[in-house]
Design a protein that fits this description.
This protein has 333 residues and is α+β, with helices and mostly antiparallel strands. The protein contains eleven helices and eight strands. The radius of gyration is 25 Å and the shape is globular. Keywords: Cytoplasm, Cytoskeleton.
Length: 333
């Protein structure tokens, strides 16, 4: 699953929480530290986060659009992705195709488990936004659930019909592709990369001595294009000291071992749980924040108590920091 806004934990202590927004501290609680109205800055941050989220989804949408176009023989791109799918017809066509593949596997003996008894009915002439579009989509989701898709892997009907939940739609289609792969349907590139990683992890390699992590600025005469791009993005994110190469496609990032793959020689993708994220988005949202110190004077309290330092640690950076850094990266590009 791709990292979403829910995982960007804003645990930074605000000026108000630190006691600095009081009148005696000389700050207007309606204003931010740089003098801008809070509502204006919050709107700016939300816009930046939306751009960051959209950019992180582009590689996945591109891969799935190419897969759907190849599988169904239709004209679909990243530009018209939701418009092509929002009446539910093509998603039902995909499900019907996968069901046919599943029945073939049962007949030829390559799959020996009983298949779900589910009838997929839909209207081919449903128009976007109509009741029939919603009915088609609901029937598709019912089929997905029958074939083992979990509730948290399926989008809500309105997310597709009203174009309000693109990320959830992408995650559902990616899971649909995994179901199709199980029955022999040619998968998107992301699924192929997942299977390569699973195969590598299953192989038992006996090593006399584990490889020593190498820093990104270490000399490497045989540097690959993907590693070169990892270095470039890590330096742009100012966290290259926390990114160490362990082997081909395997890195230690902020103390956690992750797999990185180059999608179509265009996008560096990080395997995150059961999904994918772009490397830049992963670094931006996972870099630990340093320890912050605040000093305040509390009226009515002894001087030695009021001037004590307060220490605040947080694993993730605030929304404002994320948006600000993303803006800086855009200028660097």
């Amino acid at each position: 699953m791709i990292m979403d806004g829910k995982k960007i934990k804003n645990t930074m202590t605000t000026v108000r929480e630190a006691g600095l927004s009081r009148p005696e501290a000389g700050l207007d609680p309606r204003m931010t530290a740089n003098g801008a109205p809070k509502e204006e800055e919050e709107c700016h941050v939300s816009q930046k986060l939306a751009v960051l989220q959209e950019e992180s989804l582009k590689p996945i949408k591109e891969d799935l659009a190419e897969w759907i176009a190849r599988t169904l023989g239709i004209d679909i791109t990243t530009d018209n992705f939701l418009e092509v799918l929002d009446n539910g017809v093509h998603l039902c066509n995909l499900a019907k195709l996968i069901q046919g593949k599943a029945e073939e596997c049962v007949q030829n003996g390559t799959y020996d488990e009983p298949l779900p008894r589910v009838s997929l009915k839909y209207r081919n002439n449903a128009t976007s936004g109509s009741w029939f579009a919603r009915d088609n989509t609901a029937n598709f989701l019912k089929w997905c659930k029958a074939y083992g898709m979990a509730d948290d892997q399926m989008f809500e009907t309105e997310y597709l019909v009203s174009h309000t939940g693109e990320k959830s739609v992408l995650m559902t289609i990616l899971e649909l592709a995994r179901i199709g792969y199980k029955f022999g349907l040619d998968p998107p590139n992301l699924i192929k990369m997942e299977k390569e990683i699973e195969k590598e992890e299953e192989e038992v390699v006996v090593e006399v001595k584990p490889p020593k992590p190498s820093g990104l600025d270490a000399e490497d005469p045989d540097i690959s294009q993907s590693h070169f791009m990892v270095r470039r993005i890590a330096f742009l994110c100012k966290c290259h000291d926390h990114v160490k190469k362990l082997g081909d496609g395997k890195y230690l990032i902020f103390g956690k071992v992750v797999q990185i793959r180059f999608l179509k020689n265009r996008h560096l993708m990080v395997r995150v749980g059961g999904g994918w994220d772009t490397l830049e988005n992963y670094l931006i949202h996972h870099r630990p924040v340093e320890v912050f110190e605040h000093k305040r004077l509390v009226v009515g309290e002894p001087h030695d108590i009021g001037n004590k330092y307060l220490y605040f640690k947080s694993k993730y950076r605030s929304h404002a920091q994320v948006a600000s850094e993303h803006n800086g990266h855009a200028h660097a590009h």
